[in-house]
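Request from the bench team (R.T.):
"We need a structural guess for the complex before ordering more adenosine-5'-triphosphate. Sequence and SMILES attached. Just send the tokens back."

Command: build protein-adenosine-5'-triphosphate structure.
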Amino acid sequence: MPMCAASISAKGGPAVADPLLEVRDLNAWYGPAHVLQGVSLAVGPGEIVALVGRNGAGKTTTVRSIMGLIPKRSGSVRFDCADLSARPTHERFGRGLGYVPEDRRIVPGLTVRENLVLGLLAARLGKAAEAQAIEAVAQRFPRLGERLGQEAITMSGGEQQMLAIARAMLSNPKMILLDEPSEGIMPALVDEMADLFLDLKRGGTSLLLIEQNVELALEISDRAYVLDQGRLVHDGSSADLLADPTIRDRYCAV
Amino acid sequence: MTLDLIVAQLFTGVALGAVFVLLSTGLSVIFGMLGVVNFAHGAFYMTGAYAGVFVLALTGNFWIALVAVPVLIGVMGLGVERFLIRPLYGRGQDYPLLLTFGLGYVLIEVVRILFGTDGMPFETPPLLSGGLDIEGLGYFPAYRLFVIAMTAALMLGLWILLERTRYGLIIRGAARDPEILSVLGVDTRKVFLLVFGLGTGLAALAGLLAAPMRSVNPEMGVAVLIEAFVVTVIGGMGSLLGGAVAGMLVGIVVSMTALWMPEMSEISMFALMALVLLVRPHGLFGRGALAR
Ligand SMILES: Nc1ncnc2c1ncn2[C@@H]1O[C@H](COP(=O)(O)OP(=O)(O)OP(=O)(O)O)[C@@H](O)[C@H]1O
Ligand SMILES: [Mg+2]
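Reply to R.T.: structure attached below.
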């Protein structure tokens, strides 16, 4: 549990006493378009937090800003007691912030195994430890285990999604930002994925989960933020949001 | 037309091709990775030859030059990427293209000022000045054999680096999708920097190796840059194997047409390029849809 010496949470701060990730007053622009307008959110250690909202609400932009991938942005990102606001993307990963992007980003031309090894590069393991880590993934994701030597982009969409998640998990990050992990995946696999996320949570990993499948997201998350047109319009416990459909109907209907 | 004349010319073509291979490899790796069309590549080649002249004058030892020249010019390449090209990323391909185009002229002018416009003699290193006489086949100069062997060894080493090591995995990954590598903790700016330095070092080595075979003068990189582009296009942008095959092919075609139709030797490689592009628009080994 991180106990930061100088936590900045004060008046009107997020509803988490001692957050692992704390985002304050995030703004982002694409050219002149001001698409994120003062988003503040927090995720505690071992928490699953959902981020939901309509298409174009700014969910992807939010997590890309947290990873430092949006060139024109402002606001502060604190993670694990460190101010990452001005740090480059690879250092954010190094601090324990994993990210599974919306479009999976499986690297073409590389095999499944090579794509997995990419997730281990920063750990600088020896060959034996690396093989061991890949073996553990093969056990946990048998579909990937059977296809280690196959060119990764020839796999099905669901398998690629599993690969993207496995790749982000390999380095044992403290937190993973997941952008629509269930997109294009058949229902049976979605349940499997939900179990995986709950497993991760039990292991102490925090998740920030973006989902089109709002029901699913609310069922497995502890808290939720609702984003609309670049602003947060609601936050609260997922159970409350699940029980009260008015906000969902207003901001999450497609 | 006798057999030994044909063999001799073929051999010359292979040695020439080896220089093309080294040069186009750097060009193609830099393009495949950074998306930069490097018009200064010919000037780096020329600078390599002059750095060779300089190191040779200082030490009198060709073997020291063989190591020092690629390192020196490679370090210069690091500086060029870090301070001139890096600020231009994300601004479209025209910017680095214009920058390297201008840089090429600057380097030529600097060499003219420092070493004069006349050109320099470059003696074949004494150890390699002999040759191999094979009965009934002809005479093979040792230096050219050395250039061919050296290129083959380098290409093999480069292939092992790219396909069999973690550094190679990083380079291949970052060529396809630099963003995902940064998300996985790789400092891609550093990768770009080192790849540019490597490409520049290879160009300098090509210039040094070519020096005893072709003349050393400030303009020596101008024509060879065009040849390297033709090789890269024939082989397929970003393909190591393509560059190696195409380099040999162009070297052989150029020197064989010089034998049979000397007046055609200047344009034969362009004819070859047109022919290849008609059949394979992305080049012999090109895959077409490179990330950028
Ligand atoms: N590269 C870009 N250039 C310009 N505008 C963009 C770009 N990416 C996103 N936008 C705009 O920014 C806004 C927020 O987009 P974002 O992708 O963050 O939404 P989202 O909530 O993730 O949507 P979805 O549910 O469809 O994934 C949208 O209006 C979108 O059109
Ligand atoms: Mg999105």
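Two things stood out. Residues A 59-60, 102, 179 surround magnesium ion (ligand 2) (CB under 6 Å). Chain B has one domain: 3-220.
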